[in-house]
Amino acid sequence: MHAQGRSAGLGLALLSALAFGGSGVAAKPLIEAGLDPLHVVWLRVAGAALVMLPVAWRHRDLVLRRPVLLLGFGLLAVAGVQACYFAAISRIPVGVALLVEYLAPALVLGWVRFVQRRPVTRAAAVGVVLAVGGLACVVEVWSGLSFDVVGLLLALGAACCQVGYFVLSDQGGDGEDAADPLGVIAYGLIVGAVLLTIVARPWGMDWQVLGGDAVMNGSSVPAWLLLGWIVLIATVIAYVTGVVSVRMLSPQVAGVVACLEAVIATVLAWVLLGEHLSAPQIIGGGVVLFGAFIAQSSTPKAPPSSSGPVAGGSGDGTTVLQVGSAAA
Known about the structure:
The structure is a single chain. With 328 residues, the protein is an all-alpha fold. The chain has helices at residues 2-21, 23-32, 37-51, 53-58, 62-65, 67-89, 94-101, 104-115, 122-138, 149-173, 181-200, 223-248, 251-258, 260-272, 279-297, 316-320; strands at residues 213-216, 219-222. 70% of the residues lie in helices and 2% in strands. The chain starts with a helix and ends in an 8-residue tail after the last helix.
């Protein structure tokens, strides 16, 4: 029975990584068809928030119990990550944007070491060095930073927002007053939708684009179909399957599977969008993933009673929200 549950958990984790990894591939044709990146983000978050309204109603006590957590999660994990990511993919390849965003585990390590003043393992420090070195290969620094600098900074902004995502996940999952992750996701989407409505101002959006076609690597695809994929598959299903998979697997195993998101996004962008990467960029991307995984899974040298975004990975609530990077 345990083996069956583990297999089911692995399947759900893979499905979550696949769903998240396909968000940029579906969004980029809509952006190229004439929609502003912020409008695409608003459509994604607002649509998912509507779908998750029943879940929010079920966990309505969270509004009074954990208002700061819900506001912070909506601002950083939903609005911040996705706005920066979608703006980034409008300027640089999907795979590169997602790989840069995967520096977040290394940045979390910096938060633990320099902000929380907690020692970290040598292996985790090596992971940071590998991730930064891999990023240098991805952006091909030897060719004068050939990628759009603004796009790269936006991707780094998404990584920084993910740091807040991990920290808030840690604060929301510990203790007797732990917040249910599905409730946090639901209200995070609602808060994110409200914030993005103010920023994106969707009343000025070119709604006619959604009634037409978008071009995906030379082929016409209905815009509404791409939007449906982004809302239902790349957001709602991705979040839900990610949360359930963590509860069926150890946090470490689920985190490893979640790292496949970047690989899946790169492969899908290669196949569906024709975004070809050079050999050094592919190698560098692999190094980024490897370094980020080491930084995420290494256990800091902290007392067992202390808690932190990357401490041991043994708390049920702490890492429930880590799988399925909100980012993508």
